[in-house]
Each structure stands twice: as C-alpha cells, then as structure tokens.
Amino acid sequence: MASELYLPTLSHWEHGNPWTGSWGPKARFYIVPQEGQMNVQMWEGPLCRTLAQLEEPVQFPISEEGIEQVRTWLLAQCARINGEDGP
Question: Coil, strand, or helix at residue 10?
Fold first, then answer.
C-alpha cells in the first residue's frame, strides 16, 4: 500500500473542521480539532465510530508539524491494525 495518506491543510483544522477516514481493510480514524489540538481516535472496522470500541485518543498540535506528526502516527497505527509490516 502506498505510504501517502491525505490529510487536509492547516486552514481546515484552524477553522474547526473534523476529518474522518480509513486506511486499508480495517483501520478507521476520526480527527477533531479542539483547543489548539487535533484529537485523533482510532478503531478497527468495519463498524462505524459510534458502534466500535475506540482506542485511547491522542493529541497533536494544530500546526504544519502537527499535521505531519498525525500522518506519521496514523500510518504506523493503521499498519498495526491492518496487520502490515509498515507503510
């Protein structure tokens, strides 16, 4: 699987917009900006977020660096959930 995971630009998060997505057959995620942080929730599909058992949420700063930290973290977590060796 390609290692390029699309995430919106900084202005998306600065305006308070959430983002949901999936990567591979099982990994699902939801990101919501709150109080200067991007709060990231992960779970294993196929269930929707409201019916799934969510993993412990993590936070990253709303910044260009924070977006890249989220991308790196998500790729590692998605590989784990999907049972892959890495992105």
Answer: helix
